Amino acid sequence: MATFLYRLGRLAFRRRWRVALIWVALLGLAGFGAATASTPTSSSFSIPGTEAQRAFDLLEQRFPGGGADGATARVVFKAPGHEKMTDAANKAEVAKVAADLKAGSDQVASVSDPYTAGAVSKNGSTAYVSVSYKVNSMELTDATREALEDAGHAAQKSGMTVEIGGDALQVMPETGATEIIGVAIAAVVLVITFGSLVAAGLPLLTALIGVGVGVSTITALANVLDLGSTTSILAMMIGLAVGIDYALFIVSRYRAELAEGREREEAAGRAVGTAGSAVVFAGLTVVIALAGLAVVNIPMLSKMGFAAAGTVVIAVLIALTLVPAVMGIAGKRVMGRKARKAAEAGQHPGAGPSDAKPNMGTRWARFVLRRPVWVLLVGVLGLGAVAVPAASLEMGLPDDGSQPTSTTQRRAYDLLSDGFGPGFNGPLMVVVDTADSSDGKAAAKRVTDEISGMKGVVAVTPAQFNKAGDAAMVTVVPKDRPSSVETENVVHAIRDAGQDIKSDTGAELLVTGSTAMNIDFSQKMNDALLPYLALVVGLAFLLLMVVFRSVLVPLKAALGFLLSVVAALGAVVAVYQWGWLGSLFGVEQTGPIMSMMPIFMVGVVFGLAMDYEVFLVTRMREAYVHGEKPGQAVVTGFRHGARVVTAAAVIMMAVFAGFIGSSEQMVKMIGFSLAVAVLFDAFVVRMAIVPAVLALLGHRAWWLPRWLDRLLPNVDVEGEGLRKQLEETPGDGDGDGGGVGGERELTRV
């Protein structure tokens, strides 16, 4: 692989303008597709294999045209002072609002009358108007939303409090300016790392092109592939981070090759052949981890994983082709001013007395080698302490109750809770399939009677049959809030009662609705987390065994990955569930952790952790294979790789942290979790625990049984085979006999 990439790097360097134009053309084509694509709708949400999904599917079959997919809104009114919503003046205002809503848009399907629909609280202080739309929230026009928002203004002037809930006001999530700050921090880190504005701008430019191609493609295909609104944001987050990092590794190795006195094309070829091999492997691990989310069998999660994986593939291709091309275009300016002056004076940039002074990575590695046990204990115990809150992890899906208190959706949620009870915001939809029942009405009556007598239920509506009479709907209002354990117990109690009802009457009882969907989704995520974790850890072990030709190094890497993931989950629970330092991270409302966040984080962090493991430890293995003692090999690896890995980790943290300012709860939480996970994995696991473990293992770290060595393929990530080939054959690796002398053509560049 290293030899092929070496040739690819040199080819891209020589044909730099052609390669650059190809990528610019791809960016333009993807941008055109995104600009001309129709506005994406909200992604369909389904949970195959769950009772809630089966009930939802049954509703669509037996109640056609029921508007199950349409947007909904609740306009909530609260009477001022000691007035009642049943007062004549207030009733007139509500009637006017309802009329305005009906006439405000042709997208409105129906508007309820609260006084005939029983939508007035017992104390008379609160009432609400339900609005159903013909289309989903993403297809609502701006005029329709404006009509909804303006509907209550007249009532507010009369003294009433008017708030609007429901998904009709749902808009595309915003990320704000914070991700721009993250990119700016990445730029500063690159300038400090390279000491050259051109070298610093190169990874940013190529990463932005890659993200532009990836996100534009996702936008163009959003409707065709039924992609959700958060998919492109998550793809942007991951693509930007890995795009900058992969380019950083290639450019850093290119500068190191130049520092050894090689001509530019040869340096580009060697950089892509060595660091590029690590980029391919690292990118492959990220892609496999993200694509592996499909095993959970949640279509929305699978699509998010595939979309993000596609962006990572583009980032890898950019690093292998566009980066060497842009390095060729940049010329000598890739090196800092001091390095260029040293080269003009006849010195190699890496030569001179300054080389005798150990850098920070060298000093840190020597410190760890002197005290490996203490460093290992502090690292493991520290991450273990941070991981403690993970034992209290509660997962769920957000509703309007998790919105900031400044939003009208949250205020409407609170008004309904105060007026009708906490469970009113999360009613359960019970579907009774009476197709196999001899007396469907009697079966439905038994369902309502049994549920009415259950603990934790405050209201049950009479059964509503479809036209065919073979299915009925029953709405159940629980006593407690939707995300509470008590409401979950009510769902399980209804489902348990359904088994006896089916055996006695032949009617099947199914529970659905947003609350039941939430419970089933969280349960499915819980059930899938450990198997998926075992899958990615096992994959990490096998891949790293191929790369490092060792048994203990992959084992150490996999265990370190587990430690960093659990610690990151602990930090997420502490901040978003317990509220610790919540104000610092913009957490206005604590609650359960997003159900899909832990498993999505595991997939992404797995890939990133393997990035740092490969880029840092391959240098150590390279030194060990060349005859250095185990301890000295660790120092060599840190001398060459610590600065770049540190810069890469800081850049990733900055990019991920930039998304904490998103208005979308899932994006906010994933941004925080990934930033914290990179912090723990890069600086505690890879920079401290890894060298400490290698120091304690010594030669045993690189042990591999001979029979296993013969079975494993040799992928040559560190480029040892390429190096031997270049030393033995004075050719350019392309088979044209040009040799290193093929670099002579560079004198004309």
Count of β-strands: 11
Q: Round the mean pLDDT to the nearest integer and report it.
A: 82
Please, how many domains? 4
What does the main sheet amount to? 5 strands, antiparallel
Specify the helix fraction band.
55-70%
The CATH level-2 architecture of the largest domain is identified as Up-down Bundle
Stretches where pLDDT is under 50 for at least 5 consecutive residues are 348-355, 731-749
Which labels suit this protein?
4 domains, 5-stranded antiparallel sheet, 4-stranded antiparallel sheet, disordered C terminus, 11 strands, Alpha-Beta Plaits, 749 residues, alpha+beta, 7% strand, elongated, Multidrug efflux transporter AcrB transmembrane fold
Draw up the topology in text.
Blueprint: H1 2-14, H2 16-36, H3 51-62, E1 72-78, H4 88-104, E2 108-111, E3 126-133, H5 142-150, H6 153-157, E4 161-165, H7 178-194, H8 197-220, H9 222-225, H10 231-259, H11 264-291, H12 299-330, H13 337-344, H14 360-370, H15 372-387, E5 395-396, H16 408-420, E6 428-433, H17 440-452, E7 457-460, E8 464-465, E9 471-478, H18 485-505, E10 508-512, H19 514-548, H20 552-577, E11 593-594, H21 597-625, H22 630-657, H23 665-697, H24 706-711, H25 720-728
Parallel strand pairs: 5-11
Antiparallel strand pairs: 1-3, 1-4, 2-3, 6-9, 6-10, 7-9, 8-9
Helix pairs in contact: 1-2, 1-11, 1-12, 2-8, 2-12, 7-8, 7-22, 8-10, 8-12, 10-11, 10-12, 10-22, 11-12, 11-21, 14-22, 15-20, 15-23, 17-18, 19-20, 19-21, 20-21, 20-23, 21-22, 21-23, 22-23
